[in-house]
């Protein structure tokens, strides 16, 4: 009987404050969708880091004849065969180095034409203007500085470049966007909590006569509070369900179908469905507990029960 009464009061409360209940559902859905999205973005960035950092190379570019005339690092002239052999030997002996690949001027010119063949500059370049280089794969991509310290400024070396630095700029941008999404999420959560508190208080005020009678007949505080807390929890849970549906739909249409980014952007290792599905229980639990706790603390002060 008591359970039936609580359930009936929940339905009455939701119908009486339909507009505010709808606002709570929308705000909870948006905030938790942003919350889930930010978690998935963090997973995506970490996945991309693991994928790309494993593939980045450190490049030791060697001086050519053109560099000897214009670059201070190559003031002693183009790299010699003895210098190339010594550089290769030193690289092979370094514990941080996994593999070393030599790229000749002709190979560098061929790769440049493949990547930038449409550029106006490509037609004016010749193979002898390209730089020979050693492409080094490190066992630990974080150990770039070891290579830079060993070869920067050495005779025959024009520069040492780390591809990881380019990726770091991309990941910093993605992390910045992720933190911006979290800031918006926090704002939306505050708005959702304020709406929940106001909705509960309006509902309690509209039923103050019933709650007064229940107090007079000796009803416990929790028994009086339960319908209001459950109203907020139900509205929040609906919002959480909408947020989960949004995340699943977004993953389906953006990555797998519709935009099909997984097919168009083969160079990006996208997160799988397991990453999405593991976030859904957390979102649902948050959508249930957050409104219930907000309603509980709001009612303690408002109803004084």
From TrEMBL:
> Keywords of this protein's UniProt record, alphabetized?
Cell cycle, Cell division, Cell membrane, Membrane, Transmembrane, Transmembrane helix
Q: Which InterPro entries is this protein grouped with?
A: ABC3_permease_C, FtsX, FtsX_actino, FtsX_ECD
One Pfam family from the record: FtsX
The FtsX extracellular domain covers which part of the protein?
A: 56-160
The record gives the membrane topology as: Multi-pass membrane protein
One of the record's GO cellular component terms:
plasma membrane
Localization terms from the record: Cell membrane
GO BP term, pick one: cell division
Known partners and oligomeric status: Forms a membrane-associated complex with FtsE.
Q: What does this protein do?
A: Part of the ABC transporter FtsEX involved in cellular division.
Which NCBIfam families does UniProt cross-reference here? Answer: FtsX_actino
**Protein family per UniProt:** Belongs to the ABC-4 integral membrane protein family. FtsX subfamily.
Q: What is this protein called?
A: Cell division protein FtsX
**Species annotation:** Streptomyces mutabilis
């Amino acid at each position: 009987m008591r359970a039936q009464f609580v359930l009936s009061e929940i339905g009455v409360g939701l119908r009486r404050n339909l507009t505010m209940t709808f606002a709570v559902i929308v705000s909870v859905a948006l905030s938790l969708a942003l919350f889930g999205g930010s978690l998935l973005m963090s997973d995506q960035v970490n996945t991309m880091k693991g994928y790309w950092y494993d593939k980045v190379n450190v490049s030791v570019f060697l001086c050519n004849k053109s560099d000897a005339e214009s670059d201070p690092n190559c003031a002693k002239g183009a790299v010699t065969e003895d210098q190339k052999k010594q550089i290769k030997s030193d690289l092979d002996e370094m514990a941080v180095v996994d593999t070393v690949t030599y790229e000749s001027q002709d190979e560098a010119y061929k790769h440049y034409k493949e990547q930038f063949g449409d550029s106006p500059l490509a037609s004016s370049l010749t193979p002898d203007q390209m730089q020979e280089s050693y492409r080094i794969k490190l066992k630990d991509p974080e150990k770039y500085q070891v290579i830079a310290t060993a070869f920067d400024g050495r005779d025959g070396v024009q520069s040492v470049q780390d591809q990881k630095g380019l990726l770091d700029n991309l990941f910093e941008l993605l992390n910045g966007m992720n933190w911006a999404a979290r800031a918006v999420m926090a704002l939306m959560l505050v708005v959702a909590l304020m709406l929940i508190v106001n909705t509960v208080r309006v509902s309690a005020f509209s039923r103050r006569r019933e709650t007064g009678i229940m107090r007079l007949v000796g009803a416990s505080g929790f028994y009086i509070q339960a319908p209001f807390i459950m109203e907020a929890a139900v509205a929040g849970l609906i919002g959480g369900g909408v947020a989960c549906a949004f995340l699943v739909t977004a993953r389906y249409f953006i990555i797998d179908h519709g935009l099909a980014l997984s097919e168009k952007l083969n160079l990006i290792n996208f997160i799988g469905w397991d990453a999405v599905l593991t976030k859904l229980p957390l979102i649902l639990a948050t959508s249930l507990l957050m409104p219930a706790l907000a309603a509980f603390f709001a009612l303690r002060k408002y109803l004084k029960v």
